[in-house]
Amino acid sequence: MLDKIEDALKKAGLTREWDKYPTQALQMAKLYYDRESLRARNLFDTPGEPQHDFPADPPPEALRARMPDGSWNDLSDPAMGMAGSRFGRNFPLDGLEAEQPPRLFTPSPRVVARELLQRDVFKPATTLNTLAAAWIQFENHNWFFHGRGEPDDLIEVPLAADDPWPEHPMTIRRTPELARPEGMRCPVFRNEETHWWDASQVYGSGDDKQAAMRTFEDGKLQIGADRRLLENSEYAGIDHTGMFQNYWTGVSLLHTLFTLEHNALCDALKKAYPDLGDQRLFELGWLAISALIAKIHLVEWTPGILSHPATAWGLVNTWWGLTGEEAYQRFGNARPVNSDFISGQAGGKHDHFGVPFQFTEEFVSVYRMHALIPDEWKFYSLKTGDMIKEVEFTEIQGKYTRGFMDEFSMPDLFYSFGVQHPGAICLKNYPKTLMNFERIDGELTDLATLDVVRDRERGVPRYTKFRKGLRMPVPKTFGDITSNKQWARQMQEVYDNKIDDVDPIVGMYAEDIIPGQGFSDTATRIFLLMAARRVNSDRFLTTDMRPEVYTQVGYDWVQKTTMTDILLRHYPELAPALSGVANPFGPWNAVR
After folding, report:
1. 216-225, 335-344, 568-577: segment of lowest average pLDDT
2. Which of 168, 210, 312, 347 is least enclosed, having the fewest CB within 10 Å?
3. Could you say which DSSP state residue 126 is in?
4. Cα–Cα distance, 139 to 163 (Å, whole number)
5. What does the alpha-carbon distance between residue 137 and residue 449 come to, in Å, rounded to a whole number?
6. Whether residue 107 has a cis bond before it, omega within 30° of 0
7. First to last CA, the chain
């Protein structure tokens, strides 16, 4: 069917890229067609998942609530998307191959990082605030984690003799890989987190992790008397929470905020339904808060960074549908009609589009957005607007996180994030502090080099092949990638004039950005495919997203609450800074 449509479009001369059409309606129509094409042609299951011995029938609790390990979301395939299950792919498996030396090191990933990615001067994203930068890592804590790998199973990256890195060669832990079937070249990896949009970053993936978060009283999560998270007992200086890799002040703020929001919802549920016990209150709180986080991501964060009218409208209406949020309100906070197009995917049809739901390695790749992080940070008084302290990112992350945060009130911290800009996602803007980054276990890492190596190691296609696989125009020269002549010349030098060697992160960072978009159109195609899929495939965001499952209080909490509501519920002092601000991930009012 798609082939016939494409032939007709070609005959009519309608083959241009979506942003080149003259009206928003035509742009949205092209994006809708592109998404359907991607669904049909760019979803691929991978083999290698461990076998699970599930009973024939789901446990009773799986019918009403999420399971801690992500199992039983799909009642016909209980292992789908659970913690420990495999990543999928967006390209045919027979064309993907894990790169090996010397290809793995061609050109040197360290040279790529230092010459093309490393920040020369800070380039701000002026339509956003740094809470937007913290948000995406907060979300990534939920979505994917490949595991740390064994300390003795290393990739040795050759370095130039004059490279200042403290060890030669640079060593990187190899990503733990699942066994491949005989003759298969495409590597297959396991997600340590669940694949579902279930807020596992707050609640933990698995029974033991989740139990460690709970008070087992009135459904609530643990939090201190000072309304801050408890301290992690294993790693000093960071919080006790569901996911704490690469921890820093920004994600701590959001982990704290949604722990407070969960407990506030449990109070409301307890008041409305006094006969409910601890376990049921916890289940309902978890169900609603995870859906609320998904909604905020779709209707507030993503339109903040992809603010072109066509993409912003499409993303918001992934949740609300063609008729928008006002129609829900007119129908008593309910779906106006039983149609995903009119009423949105949330609460609509449960559909995997022919492929079991899983995050893909290419999805992980396009979320390499470390450029959002500034190297220098300023912290202010909410009361006076005066700057209190200026620090480098190193001083607000890892083992320094809690000590730094204890110097400030939470409203001051949130305000400081609200009035500062993150970095733009482009070449020459990768934070220097992340290229000399100390993990919580003390291991030193250059994250820019690591990003390049991970794509190559995991068989993510290089940039030109990536675009070809998405049926996008493929650049023939470095000047076709970017209009920035200096960047084009430097890429040409680093890649020895071999355009097919350009790494996906470099090509996507170099692309000319469509006005209103916060990152490359290449990355946007993967989001276009995967954003709605994460809703459509999740039973608790589709067929079971209804008052009968969530309770009326829980359902209304999801549909009526915004990010601004949450901030003001727990930190009402922020009201002057947020007054009149259309999107809380955009710049806040400066207090004077």
Report:
1. 335-344
2. 168
3. T
4. 34
5. 19
6. yes
7. 60
| Residue written as token pair 């050759």 | 158
Q: What is the DSSP letter of 251?
A: H
Number of H helices, E strands in the chain: 26, 6
| Contact of 584 with 564, CB cutoff 8 Å | yes
For residues 244 and 440, the answer to whether their CB atoms sit within 8 Å is yes
Q: Which of 467, 461, 244, 247 is nearest to 365 (CA)?
A: 461
Kind plus residue range of the DSSP H or E element containing 574: none
Q: Is 141 a catalytic residue?
A: yes
Which of the following is catalytic: 141, 195, 255, 370?
141
**Type of residue found at 412:** D
The tens digit of pLDDT for each residue in 376-393 reads 999 999 999 999 999 999
Q: What share of the chain is helix, strand, coil (3-state, %, to 5)?
A: 45, 5, 45
In this prediction, residue 469 has a pLDDT band, given cuts at 50, 70 and 90, of: very high
Instruction: Report the DSSP pairing between strands 170-173 and 376-380.
Output: unpaired
The rounded distance, in Å, linking the Cα atoms of 325 and 434 is 40
Q: Cα dist. 11→17, 471, 472 in Å?
A: 16, 18, 18
pLDDT digit string, tens, across residues 177-226: 988 888 888 999 999 999 999 999 999 988 899 999 999 999 999 999 99
Check pLDDT > 70 for residue 1.
no
Evaluate whether 216 touches 278 at the Cβ level (below 8 Å): yes
Q: Contact, 71 vs 65, CB < 8 A? A: no
Q: Tokens representing 450? A: 């690591």
CB 46 within 8 Å of CB 186: yes
**Residue whose C-alpha is closest to residue 346's, from 314, 321, 310, 311:** 321
Contact 243, 203 (CB under 8 A): no
Cβ neighbour number for residue 182 with a 10 Å cutoff: 4
Number of other residues whose CB lies within 10 A of the CB of residue 326: 10
65 pLDDT more than 90: yes
Q: Is the peptide bond before 68 cis (omega within 30 degrees of 0)?
A: no
Distance CA 1, CA 356 (A): 22
What single letter denotes the amino acid at residue 247? Y
CB atoms within 10 A of CB 213: 22
Neighbours of 547 (CB within 10 A): 13
- CA-to-CA dists, residue 38 to 23, 491, 513, angstroms: 23, 29, 21
Query: Per-domain residue ranges for the chain?
Result: 1-41, 43-578
Q: Which CATH superfamily is domain 43-578 in?
A: Haem peroxidase domain superfamily, animal type (1.10.640.10)
Name the CA dihedral angle for 220, 221, 226, 228, rounded to a multiple of 10 degrees. Answer: -150
Indicate the pTM of the whole model. 0.94
